[in-house]
Amino acid sequence: MELPLPPEAPMSPLEALRRVCFLLERGRESSYRVDAFRRAIAAIRLVPDDELRERVESGTLKQLKGIGDSSAAIIGQALRGVVPAYLASAEEKHGAPLTTGGQELYAAVRGDLHVHSDWSDGGSPIEEMVLAAVELGQEWMALTDHSPRLTVANGLSRERLEQQLERVEGIRGSVGAAFTLLTGIEVDINLDGSLDQDDDLLERLDVVTASVHSKLRQPAYEMTPRMLAAVRNPHTNVLGHCTGRLVTGGRGTRPQSQFDAEKVFRACLEHGVAVEINSRPERCDPPDELVELARDLGCLFAIDSDAHAPGQLDMKAYGCERAERLGIPAERIVTTWSAEEVRDWAGSRVSA
Fold this sequence. Notes:
Blueprint: H1 13-26, H2 31-44, H3 49-58, H4 69-79, H5 85-94, H6 103-108, H7 126-135, E1 140-143, H8 158-175, E2 180-188, H9 199-204, E3 207-211, H10 220-232, E4 238-239, H11 261-271, E5 274-278, H12 288-297, E6 301-304, H13 316-325, H14 339-351
Parallel strand pairs: 1-2, 2-3, 3-4, 4-5, 5-6
């Protein structure tokens, strides 16, 4: 994987706007600002450049719904064959490497097992997430929108998940063999440790990431059996952001959940479940000492972005820096494997 090179002039208005969004998301800028540029992309996606050029010259570009002052300037400068000033500023501010370490492991990462789209609480269509992953040099990606219990995140009901599976099939047909889009879900771990989706649907998915999103302050004697039940479930492939902590960001901070980590990680080892290294800066989950415990026990890992927008896919750089610094062997990180190897690994639990 590598950060796509900045587009050089001449570039299309769409290329310029998409790159701006990518950089703002990568730099954790305001979602309000990013959404404004996403609306501009939607406004011009099907408008020919000749029409855009005419509107620029006649001063009617902003009559298109979704085009504001900043997006109009980007479009006009791109059409004139120069790098838009807004894009140049975003490149200077957010185009540098996210970390000073982990580059070797980052280069080895081939996919992502935790990605959201606008089907749940992500900000972009599946197609846009796929395109960004391809531009980053990923070989595959699992789409893991939320399950129905998480209504605050627009979790997918059975019916909506079935509809999404049909959409994924269509996208797979358009992408071809150059990139593999895996079906998946980030399924809630219920209070009794069961998974928040019907078993027959989970069997149809390529991969299942299971995470706790509720009652995070349960005492350890309740949280531990809850997590153990989820890990032992034959549909679970990845244990997502296992402590649930928040260390920074707009949602404030949250202490980590209490559970017997050695018991839970030993169960992960026994059942072939990967421990997620969640790369989102606000999560940085699990903390270093738990990553080291899982490492010493021999667990598999998944370095995931937990991306809710295209530019956030690159946040795996943070997880790679941590994993490399903490001595996690690349061969034990399932996101360095090929899509075929991941499918075989994930499917082996259900077929066993």
